[in-house]
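Complex record, two chains
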Amino acid sequence: MFIINCPFCGEREQSEFKAGGEAHILRPKQPTELSDDEWAEYLFMRKNIKGVQFERWNHAHGCRKWFNMVRDTSNDEIKAVYKMGEKPPLE
Amino acid sequence: MKNKYSIYSLIKNAFTYHENWGKAWKDPVPKKEYDAVIIGGGGHGLATAYYLAKKHNMKNIAVVEKGWIGGGNTGRNTTIIRSNYLWDASAGLYNHALKIWEGLSQELNYNVMFSQRGVMNLAHNLQDVRDLKRRTHANRLNGIDAVYLNTEQVKKFCPIINTSPDIRYPVLGGTLQRRAGTARHDAVAWGYARGADEMGVDIIQNCEVKSIKRNGDSVEGIETTKGFIKTSKIGVAAAGHSSVIANMAGLKLPLESKPLQALVSEPVKPIIDTVVMSNAVHAYVSQSDKGELVIGAGTDDYVSYSQKGSHDIVEGTLNAILELYPIFSRMRMLRQWGGIVDICPDASPIISKTSIKGLYFNCGWGTGGFKATPGSGDLFAHTIANDEPHKLNASFNINRFVSGDLVDEHGAAAVAH
């Protein structure tokens, strides 16, 4: 349980949010050209990092907007929050 | 077995105030090289080592564990054992495990306290009723005992359930697997550890794997906190940390690791003599031999390795428990904890070879791996020893995420995994 600083609404409890998994997985530009291996990679394979991970979140019980977050999954410490389309922080 | 446990050994040791029982397993220094190394000293890893030694005559093997054996999810689960899965592949896998459970205490000469007290799954809406009836038929076609109960029969089997029609999610029926039940989780790890140790397996605790050494497409060994160990076969049974180990070998797995919570109440006199699970409201409960209510809550929806969980998950489960069992309204909860579970997109496990020769994974058990411990160990040992899966785990390969031949138990089992 932690507090998330929604870029649109400010600080709210984590239970208001829905986790959307790993961020920056791009939808394939040419889906028809994809091999089975590439589909598997896109659909199923995840880094599932123990440590600093980039992920998507949705303020489901608030503004309902999507945004990105950098979080340390080993202790749930949030490093940064940034809007969709913005460049991820480099660290 | 040199130190066979029996009524005679109990009497003999009583004369010396139980101070001279021998050690159940050794504390060896790792050798330079093993024929196979199992990463992860939980139930699955220890069972794998046990069956490798017993059925495949591989004695020069080691189990490396970063903490202490059985200290991960083996010691954190709600100990439920059942095999009433919908699909044929899952039914075969879990029923294989259930059959081993039935003779496990005798085989290991270690009381795992396997108690076939039955598991009941409740239906709370029309779709639940249809799904559970369908699953009952599927189970019976696969030779798994299953009966469908109506509301009165549910009440008769477990009288403390509130079957009143005016609760928020009324009980419309349920299924019952009588051969299902519970076991003592720690004893499973200890029994397999003792059995494996007896056959010469080295169980190395406090030994964390730091990296996996590869030579091209095959493995050469592991670098650990206790030095380098050379081996040509590595079996990974690291549960929530499977992806961490996979990353060391340059592999990606279709897993997400999430906290799953459970809690126990203060101990009380016997009140519930079975296991009752409800997927729709997410509440399941049984009573331990010590008298504590053992309650399983849900997973958080975000990836975390923190072994904590969110308060709202526990709150939701307890709300459901209280509506179904008003008698528990004044119970106090004693302890709450989290374990990190590795969940596959189809909620089925992976017991498989990988693209790297000599590297095998047993993972993705998600929220329901304990019940499969003996079967999982047996089939993983077969896969490692023969470099080929057994027919019972052939469907549970990693390649199913490429071929699309998933074993989709997520929506199908009608149970909390």
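Note: The radius of gyration of chain A is 15 Å.
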